[in-house]
Amino acid sequence: MSSSITKALMELELDDDGRIPRTGNAFTATTHIITVVIGAGVLALAWALAQLGWIAGIASVLLFASISVFTYSLVADCYRFPDPVNGKRNYTYMQAVKAYLGGTMQVICGSIVYAKLAGITVGYTITSSISLVAIKKAVCFHQRGHAAECKFSYNPFMIGFGILQIFLSQIPNFHELTWLSTVAAITSFGYVFIAIGLCLSVLISGEGASTSITGTKIGPELSAEDKIWRVFSSMGNIALACNYATVIYDIMDTLKSHPPENKQMKKANVIGITAMTTVFLLCSGLGYASFGDHTPGNIFTGFREPFWLVALGNGFIVIHMIGAYQVMAQPFFRVVEMGANIVWPDSNFINKEYPIRMGSVTVYFNLFRLIWRTIFVILATILAMAMPFFNEVLSLLGAIGFGPLVVFFPIQMHIAQKRIRKLSVKWCALQLLNCLCLLVSLAAVVGSIHQISQDLHKYKIFSYKQ
Predict the structure, then answer these.
(1) Are residues 310 and 139 in contact, defined by beta-carbon separation less than 8 angstroms?
(2) What letter does residue 403 receive in the DSSP assignment?
(3) Least reliable range by pLDDT among 12-16, 66-70, 333-337, 451-455
(4) Domain topology for 26-458
(5) Three-state DSSP class for 281?
(6) How far apart are CA 316 and CA 310, in angstroms?
(7) Judging by DSSP bridges, how do beta strands 354-358 and 88-89 pair with one another?
(8) What is the mean pLDDT of residues 90-98?
(9) Domains of the chain: which residue ranges?
(10) Rounded to an integer, what distance in angstroms lies between the CA atom of residue 328 and that of residue 240?
């Protein structure tokens, strides 16, 4: 009798999938969304608005946000399979794609997700080096005057950042660096609000630049062709800033079961994306109003004074990049290592952990993890050194992820879940949205690659200075 009571009590203390009860709610999910999207991509939005102009730029931000609210709501309904309230949980985006669309689509989705995660590490290496150079330039201008020649190579800073990431990457999983992730999230808000404050100070002092409803003007410095390529690239920058598809199911998996997770997540999506859009419009609008046609790719690089505040903001960016790099890299590391374990389950090189005692602390290292993760970080650093072009690389990453992850897979899963009849009005409307967003993503990919190609021809490889 007592054992059956104990068993019943234990069952009451667990969720429907046998795990410890989730305690999250719409508020905590909202904070996760805001923490994820407030990042390095925000710094490129002023440049994107400068290319598009006030009307098209603001309309693009609002349009991407509106599409995101709609499609992320579809994703929320697919957290459980087949019923959105009582079905079996999908713990990852790829698992949901497999449940609704099959194994082939899961492989395609996984390839895009992990390619994007790997690419983001290159983008974060570039971002950190730009910020470190900006700190050195701010000090240089302050000490030697604004007319001084203060140009520095990114390479030493990228190498230093890469060496640090080699050490951090040897930690088996990022759960052991929760403190760093928390600090990174806090600093992301710090540099965004410093950027907003610096732009406001420029406008209040009356030193703002002239702007246009159509963006950067075509003339001797900008051909009509280059204007079009920049417009395409800027769409990718906006798409990256709106994207949190890779972590949406991680967020949903923290929510308690009552009320249903999909209802809580839909509410969090609306609140989070509204807050996100407000911040985006502030950063992009104030940045464009401050610099006009000469808005830099990274808004922080346009400021020199007060040098200590500029240095602080860039320092926050570097701290954020250190933690964010591992948040993005660890899932990629894990999937490669799990695959190696499946293929070679008896290999000591791949699976054996070697303990090293350091005083009262025991650290475990694995030969495969040591070699493979080190090689990955080195390759990411070399790619960053070869292409240190901030907004172009971020635009490419945004373009790659938006069409498939934010639009295509959510719509296809929704059609499968609701059994929407082919060629019905609703089916055609959803597929039209799908096609339009994929075309925008494709245009942004082409534009970003074109911009990177132009930059590579313009600057000597591995010798870029700013």
Answers:
(1) no
(2) I
(3) 12-16
(4) Hydantoin permease (1.10.4160)
(5) helix
(6) 10
(7) unpaired
(8) 89
(9) 26-458
(10) 14
